[in-house]
Amino acid sequence: IDGKDYPFPFYSRADWNTDPSTDVRPLITLTPYVVIHHTYEPPACNDTAQCEAAMKSMQDYHKSLDWGDIGYNFCVGSEGGAYEGRGWEVVGIHAGKANSISIGICLIGDWREQLPPVQQLETTKALIEEGVKRGFISSDYKLIGHRQALPTECPGTALFFPRGGWGQFVPQMRYPPPLKKTHK
């Protein structure tokens, strides 16, 4: 992905010096779900160097679990940068049975007790809008927290979900049903 044409700071896999992925299963498009996560560890990153180090740390950990790559499709740092994980067209490993029908976006940091910085939230919303605009996310997508796909406290109590609008958040949904797969 070329990050130059995004309306926010965007860092491709090459920018954060990723290892090659060994898991590149194609993701369905138009993806009907967006799943929001937080990292807990690594902690919030406040500049590009810290966020790139966090991405590399997550990739190394996820690969140690035999996931083949970082589990998330994208991550967003506290400084407002978006970081490509698996990208728009590769199945992530982040939400159990919802992996093959969702884009996983992780807000780097522990958001159990405090809200992420405004610029991190705004970039996350803008990234989702870009996914819709570019034809990767369905315009009628459902926004859920990781805890709605699997039993976990993720994305943190404070982040789940801040007042002030998250568009298509579906608070009552649990464990998305499997969908018939279609490809672009």
Automatic annotation (TrEMBL):
Originating gene: pgrp-LB
- BP GO terms, sorted: innate immune response; peptidoglycan catabolic process
Family membership, please give it. Answer: Belongs to the N-acetylmuramoyl-L-alanine amidase 2 family.
Q: Give GO terms: molecular function aspect only.
A: N-acetylmuramoyl-L-alanine amidase activity; peptidoglycan binding; zinc ion binding
Q: What is the lineage of its organism?
A: Eukaryota, Metazoa, Ecdysozoa, Arthropoda, Hexapoda
Source organism superkingdom: Eukaryota
Q: Which Gene3D superfamilies is this protein grouped with?
A: Peptidoglycan recognition protein-like
S-S bonds:
C45-C51
Supply the alphabetized keyword list.
Disulfide bond, Immunity, Innate immunity, Signal
Domain Peptidoglycan recognition protein family: start-end pairs: 8-150
Name all N-acetylmuramoyl-L-alanine amidase domain ranges: 19-156
This chain belongs to the protein called Peptidoglycan recognition protein
Matching InterPro entries, A to Z? Amidase/PGRP_sf, Amidase_domain, Peptidoglycan_recognition, PGRP, PGRP_domain_met/bac
Q: How does it assemble?
A: Monomer.
